[in-house]
Amino acid sequence: LWCSLPWVVMDLIWVGKSALSDDxxxxxxxxxxxxxxxxxxxxxxALGATGGITSLLTSDKPILESPHAVTGLIGxxxxxVQTILPSLFEGNPNLRNVHGLLGSGIMTLFLIHSVLxxxxxxxx
Length: 124
Hints:
The protein is mostly helical. The protein has one domain (4-123). 80% of the residues lie in helices and 0% in strands. It is built from 4 helices and no strands. The protein has helices at residues 4-20, 24-58, 67-84, 95-123. α1 (4-20) runs antiparallel to α2, α2 (24-58) crosses α3 and α3 runs antiparallel to α4 (95-123). Pfam families: DUF4079. Keywords: Membrane, Transmembrane, Transmembrane helix. The chain crosses the membrane at residues 37-57, 69-89, 101-122.
């Protein structure tokens, strides 16, 4: 929870600022920062997944038993798809809308993932 929540919040703030701003500099900074934040988010989430899977394997527990693990793997898969979409924007401008909607869905999924992780941690 404490690792994932800051990434989600920072990205939402910067994307929100740029969407509501008329300032060209703010929009340019957000456009530059958005992929960097999400690359960091993917990197740290992948590290967390590696640690979680290692922990489950060393304790002889099934990997996909918890909803936390399932939402994490789905989230990483969707982030991978999300990373590919911008390279296809030129051929199909409607993909920008798909990218935005998918991104909102991914952020919601990771907020749910954070809550599930907190519940999992408190139950142990």
